[in-house]
Amino acid sequence: MSAMLALQVDGLSVTHAAADGARTVVSGVSFELARGRILGIAGESGCGKTQLLLALLGLSPPGAQVSGSALLSGRQLVGADRRVLRSLRGNRIAMVFQDPMTALNPYLTIGTQLAEVLQVHRGLSKSQALLHSQHMLEAVGIDAPARRLRQHPHELSGGMRQRVLLAMALLCEPDVLLADEPTTALDVTVQAQILDLLLDLRERLGMAVVLVTHDMGVLAQVADDVAVMHAGVLVEQGPVQQLFDAPQSSATQSLLAAARQLSPTAQSLI
Amino acid sequence: MNSTPPLPRWSLLLLLTIVVLAVVVPWISPWTYYTPSWDELDLEPTFANGHWLGTDDLGRDLLVRLMWGCRISLLVAVAASLTSLFIGVLWGATAGYAGGRVDAWLMRTVDVLYAVPFIPFVIVLTVLFGRNIVLLFVAIGAVSWLDTARIVRGQTLALRQREFITAARVGGMSPAQIVRRHVLPNLAGIVAVYLTLTIPTVILVEAFLGYLGLGAQAPLTSLGVMIADGAAQLRSRPRLLICPALLLALLVLCCNRLGDALRDHFDPASGGGA
Amino acid sequence: MLGFIGKRLLVAIPTLLVIITLAFALLHAAPGGPFDSDKVLVPEIRAAIEARYHLDESVPMQYLRYLGGVVRGDFGPSFQYQDSSVNDLIAQGLPIDLTIGLLAMGLALLIGVPLGVLAALRRNTVWDRAASAIALLGISVPTYVTAPLLVLLFAVSLRWLPAGDWGEGALRNLVLPVVALSLPYVAYIARLLRASLLDVLHTPWVRTARAKGMPWRTVLLRHALRPALLPLVAFLGPATVGVITGSIAIETVFGLPGIGRFFVDGAFNRDYTVVMGVTILYGVLIVLANLLADVVQALLDPRMRP
């Protein structure tokens, strides 16, 4: 059993340059993620969750300063060379973005967008890559995968697009999957399906997942551990049941209160 | 990201300077723009006798003529732009607010009019209906309102969905009142942008017509007329081309720069220009 | 797709009708007629001329007669050039305008596209500011100013190129007119592409492509450039027509026998048929160019396909 952690973040800080001075959007965030575990990062909008994920990928906006340490299976991500980062992105660490409507290129076919990941990272030919992509589409529960490859994003439903994004992230079987609000833009039934899918994949591939959301109900269903962010700072973290039973910080409490009002699933677990 | 960029100060300053000069210089200068002076033909620019830009082939002071030409160009430009704006805003706001068939017909007309070749029509209009200055700017204005109408319609459609409009309708205001009191003021921003972008185009169109011999008639002159005259005497008296050309370029440049900046200011999402 | 094209062509017919009617009405509403100016005519001769050109009929009659001719492809005789028909004049002048216009547009694309892409990629650096400044200059200075200046420089001072004249389309004679005509379009295209590319580079899907670890060249060429070209294609429709019809200034400065000259002279001399003919020609060109631009856009953008 490998003792090396999938993701080890220590004192990660991100500062954005702004016209009226620098703004710290992520401040001294530290956490550990072992293989096969799902870490949920919860917080209200604007607390820096997405910026945290982008910083891990080296995709912070131009002019941003990133400091601290983030080890991906032992490899340092912060300040790494551009080419190294590019070879890791989509390959050893992948991200599923928030809005399936716009995260896919509307001008290219699904097949092209999936295949290029394998062509670049695994050196496959286009036809080989398309074949693999087709299998992956099937694995994430999309019907008629061969036909979908030739379609464009606007021809698919929101739920299907989200699955495609997921498939795209999983093609190279990354060590870590970063999921940014993967279910927020979807309706409740589809939400449940996607979450089941995540759990299923975690079983089969032993992947580590960082799931970012403001919806505690979602975390109640899938997360092993939860970290709560507020104004760029990690205010509380621990196993999911512990956080739900005995929330320490006011941020956690207000998130739970919001969840209680909206999500019946969360109710059953709280 | 970054805040909206500041307004270009130099362009604004230059533009204001030009306008002030255009108003003041003919006023205070001892020479007129139309009186030929046979003993002062073709003078080079000096400070001595007061002809700071020299004189032209008929002995008229070039600076005064230049500023007069500038006056005419600016006058026509502003008047035509306002005409174009008036028609465009009215058309677009009506289409956007009324919606349904009225909207469809109004915009279909716009689509058809888009196919009309612009310059030829203006030429025809100005040639036929006399070289009247007023007619000139009506003609130019009448063919440049299309873009404004489209944009205004889009904005109006968006505004219509907003709560304060619904509140006004529930309160019993008539559509005309609503358009006047609520819609139009909210259009001010986008209208300002399009005004500053229309003006340079109109200046160029007027200059072109002047170049062709239409528009302002002798002894009145505009920048376009002066450029045409200057171009004909390019080899012998290049000064007569370069001065109005330079002034025209500066004028249009400043207007474009300001228009771009205003557009960036009001709608940074539009991607901006130079 | 065929249905799409068919529908558009169908709409084009009433459009052209509107243009014809508008132009006709304007021409006949204005004071003066084609034979008023030059010579003083003996009344009998004048009546004969008017009968020959059907100017003695009522305006609605003339309109219908003209429409009939247009439908048959006959634009009527020219009033100023007594021996030529409008069709002749167009046949003479159009190839010249087409050659110069299309060459100018080609040159503008050749220079403008890379300039715009460079400005977008090197945003806010000295390259961007320089390119943008040049572009701003290009759209602020009209062709009838740059053309004489170019002549002054290259033909008079340096004596590298001829100062004017068509010269049967020899390459040397084409250079200056084409360059002068293309300058403002270089500017428009560069500005447009810069703005458009910057927009696309900030879209979520480009971010996804980068997050997948795609090399920059792939991101740019495959994910960004194609959508960025769409506004350019939309612009090219009316712009191509503009470059062909807007060469009036060029024709004047360089002494080229194109349609623009006929048009302006025709307007001055009340040569109704020439003015009408050229106007209709331009209208047809605009309709066709817009249609082509729409078709290309639909081909490039899967969302717009019917």
Describe this structure in words.
The complex is a heterotrimer of chains A (270), B (274) and C (306). Chain A has 270 residues and is α/β, with parallel strands linked by helices. Helix content of chain A is 43%, strand content 24%. Chain A has twelve helices and ten strands. Chain A has a six-stranded mixed β-sheet with strand order 6-7-8-3-9-10, sandwiched between helices. A four-stranded antiparallel β-sheet of chain A has the order 2-1-4-5, covered by helices on one side. In chain A, helix 4 packs across helix 5 and helix 5 crosses helix 7. The radius of gyration of chain A is 18 Å and the shape is globular. Chain A starts with 6 loop residues before the first strand and ends with a helix. The mean pLDDT of chain A is 87. Chain B is mostly helical and 274 residues long. Chain B has one domain: Orthogonal Bundle (MetI-like fold). Chain B has ten helices and no strands. In chain B, helix 1 packs across helix 10 and helix 2 packs parallel to helix 10. With 306 residues, chain C is mostly helical. Chain C has two domains: 38 residues, no CATH class; 192 residues, Orthogonal Bundle (MetI-like fold), CATH 1.10.3720. In chain C, helix 10 crosses helix 11. The longest helix of chain C is centred in the middle third of the chain and has 36 residues. The termini of chain C are close together. Classes of the chains: A alpha/beta (270), B mainly alpha (274), C mainly alpha (306). Chains B and C meet through helix 4, helix 8, helix 9 and helix 10 of B and helix 1, helix 5, helix 6, helix 7 and helix 9 of C.
Fill in the keyword field for this structure.
heterotrimer; A: 270 residues; alpha/beta; 6-stranded mixed sheet; globular; C: 306 residues; mainly alpha; MetI-like fold; 2 domains; flat
How many individual helices of chain C? 12
Class by SSE composition of chain B: mainly alpha
Which fold name fills CATH's third level, the topology of chain B?
MetI-like fold
Rg of chain B over CA atoms, rounded to whole Å, is 22 Å
